[in-house]
Design a protein that fits this description.
With 350 residues, this protein is of the alpha+beta class. It is 52% helix and 9% strand. Helix 11 packs across helix 14 and helix 12 crosses helix 13. InterPro entries: CdaR-like_regulators (IPR051448), CdaR_GGDEF (IPR041522), PucR_C-HTH_dom (IPR025736), PucR_C-HTH_sf (IPR042070).
């Protein structure tokens, strides 16, 4: 298996690089190596235009003197070949999977990646989840084959959609979720295929290419975030078990989950709802019911009721030490967002 790790670079650099890779890939594979269905809604004229455009791109790639990239493993396998022979279908598919996985792992999930995923049989819209862990005996190929072997095929007998890549010593699988494959089944596959003596992570369930990118990165980040967690987590663990650590690492999916599912849920739409205020004061008071009641000028039983209601709303219990940390992180991030110290990929510079 080809490692899908890529070196850091700006978004623009990675975008230009992907354009070159797609052109080179078209030149390498040709039209008869990977079969794929024509996308729904594309008529004959559009298909012809697309075919002509692809042919022109491929010809440009063939006549190009050099192709400069800064990727490793999967991408360099394409760029370093000046006059390659046409690969076998299995080789071509593995190569394409490596490229797609590398793009998703590096937050590249635009229409070009969607097009590449379509070549692998993935629909434009789908639901997916991720799993990550360490291959038994560090045998990456055997572990990948085991994961694919455990997945139920589609009703027509075709294999279940699955992308597998290696990232910093961990094997990550992105599996399409449908009527035949549920997240619970994917979790059982993870337990059966990964080394049970090493951390195993069950990623979130997300939608489409952008969600696939988040699911892959969430699973990877959770495995690294585990090193900063002082509390024992279940095995296999879920990404949600390490939301604060992942958010501090810069994981956008974790940050959004904390703000949307916890802070915004507690805040609600009613400005007079005291739930968020009660939880915040309770956490700031060292989890003291009496101190919280005095600050709010209410009875301690009222505080208990509000805390119970908060748990019902967001699923996290402020009276539990670990869950209190999750709530505290979510409230801090939410207040930063409300204060305008926010942007799509992190915080504003002040």
């Amino acid at each position: 298996m080809v490692s899908a790790s890529v070196r850091p670079g700006s978004g623009s650099d990675r975008g230009d690089m992907l354009d070159l890779l797609m052109a080179r890939l078209a030149a390498l594979l040709g039209d008869d190596v990977l079969e794929r269905d024509e996308p729904a809604g594309v008529d004959g004229a559009d298909a012809a235009d697309e075919s002509a455009e692809t042919a022109q791109t491929a010809e440009a790639a063939r006549t190009s003197d050099t192709v400069t990239t800064s990727t490793t493993s999967a991408t360099s396998a394409i760029a370093d070949s000046k006059a390659p022979r046409s690969p076998r279908p299995a080789d071509a598919r593995s190569l394409l999977e490596s490229i797609v996985f590398a793009c998703l792992a590096e937050s590249t999930d635009d229409e070009r990646v969607v097009s590449l995923m379509h070549m692998l049989g993935w629909p434009a819209q789908f639901v997916c989840c991720s799993i990550a862990g360490t291959p038994p005996s560090r045998d990456v190929a055997a572990c990948a084959a085991s994961i694919r072997g455990h997945l139920r095929p589609h009703a027509d007998g075709t294999p279940q959609d699955c992308l597998i890549g290696e990232h910093d010593g961990h094997l990550v699988a992105l599996v399409r979720v449908d009527d035949g494959t549920s997240p619970d089944e994917v979790a059982r596959i993870a337990e059966a295929c990964f080394d049970g003596h090493e951390p195993i992570c069950l990623g979130p369930t997300r939608q489409n290419a952008d969600g696939a990118s988040r699911a892959i990165r969430a699973a990877i980040n959770a495995l690294f975030a585990l090193k900063a967690c002082t509390r024992e987590v279940p095995q296999p663990m879920r990404c949600e078990d390490l939301l604060p650590e992942r958010a501090l690492m810069g994981d956008e999916d974790a940050r959004d989950e904390l703000v949307t599912s916890i802070y915004q849920a507690l805040k609600g739409d009613n400005p007079n709802d005291p739930t968020l205020q009660t939880v915040s004061i309770f956490l700031d008071s060292g989890a003291s019911l009496d101190a919280t009641a005095r600050t709010l000028s209410v009875h301690p039983n009222t505080v208990r009721y509000r805390l119970k209601r908060a748990t019902e709303i967001c699923g996290w219990d402020a009276t539990d030490t670990r869950e209190a940390y999750v709530l505290s992180t979510a409230i801090t991030l939410g207040r930063l967002r409300d204060a305008g110290l926010w942007r799509d990929n992190g915080f504003q510079q002040v």
